[in-house]
TrEMBL record:
Segments traversing the membrane: 126-152
Protein keywords: Glycoprotein, Membrane, Signal, Transmembrane, Transmembrane helix
Main location: membrane
Organism of provenance: Calyptomena viridis
Keyword set includes Transmembrane: yes
InterPro entries: Tetraspanin/Peripherin (IPR018499), Tetraspanin_EC2_sf (IPR008952), TSN6/7_LEL (IPR048232)
GO CC term, one of those recorded: plasma membrane
UniProt-recorded name of the protein: Tetraspanin-7
Organism domain of life: Eukaryota
Cross-referenced Pfam families: Tetraspanin (PF00335)
Signal peptide start and end residues: 1-19
Membrane topology type: Multi-pass membrane protein
Upper taxonomic lineage: Eukaryota, Metazoa, Chordata, Craniata, Vertebrata
């Protein structure tokens, strides 16, 4: 049992170190994937579209760096900026969304990349605290399992 807990502890420790070391690569990959999702955003419902819409509605943002990122997409040429960028769904017409100057007043102007990364970084202290607490319990479990094993081994030799 102690060996199993030690193995799990080491796996979690390695994952945390790798995540910390490669955090910049993770951000770069996220940004490129978000750009790709905007490029592939289409009229039919798919996972990329749902993910982009959810991020934009939840964080009140639009595009990767800002709302003008949509101007380089095929979707913009057909329908304009997506409705998930609108500040108010009632006051957002398709004509407004096709004109970048009018859209600037009706959509969120901040980009999603900065908001997502800043939200993740602000929550990292909570995640780190919970992980540290779990690691402490695992270490206590490892120590107690070793003590129990030693106790059982010592008692077997005394009985013979």
């Amino acid at each position: 049992y102690a060996m199993l807990l030690s193995l799990i502890f080491l796996i979690v420790l390695v994952a945390a170190v790798v995540g910390f070391v490669f955090r910049h690569e993770i951000k770069t990959n996220f940004e490129s994937n978000l750009n790709l999702a905007l490029k592939d955003y289409n009229v039919t419902a798919d996972r990329h579209r749902e993910a982009v819409d959810t991020i934009q509605r939840t964080l009140h943002c639009c595009g990767v760096q800002n709302y003008s990122d949509w101007e380089r997409t095929e979707y913009f040429r057909q329908k304009g900026i997506p409705r998930s960028c609108c500040k108010s769904q009632d006051d957002c017409s398709e004509q407004d969304l096709k004109d970048p100057n009018k859209a600037k007043l009706k959509v969120f102007v901040d980009g999603c990349f900065f908001l997502v990364t800043s939200t993740m970084e602000s929550k990292m202290s909570v995640v780190a605290g919970i992980s540290f607490g779990i690691a402490c319990f695992q270490l206590i479990g490892i120590i107690l399992a070793c003590c129990l094993s030693r106790y059982i081994t010592n008692n077997q030799y005394e009985m013979v």
